[in-house]
Amino acid sequence: MAEPVDRTASDVINRYFVAQSTRDFDTLVGMFTGDGFVIDEGKTWSGRSGIREWRDKAASAYQYTTQVLQVHEVDENEYAALVRLEGNFPGGIVELEYRFALAGRLIKSLEID
Known about the structure:
Elements lengths: L6 H15 L3 H6 L1 E9 L2 E4 H15 L2 E12 L2 E10 L5 E11 L2 E7 L1
Parallel strand pairs: 1-6
Antiparallel strand pairs: 1-2, 3-4, 4-5, 5-6
């Protein structure tokens, strides 16, 4: 059985997905530590400016909806979310794992597989 997600982690992860869904990229980028990074599609995007570039490129290339199916604790300060995306990208539907590493109320890293 998955461990329950603590309230702080749940809040951070929920806010991330709300910002992603509403395309509020200023809020989304501000949720990362200054030295945070994202790994997506085999590429690493570092720092807030790199993360902003990643979001802007994804937003201009595709339109999609996000449904969070499950969130669970992996380790202390590390959480995984199973997410279903539907949109105008190749294949149209995909389920991905978003792995978050948190530093307090900020995201240190996000890996998407």
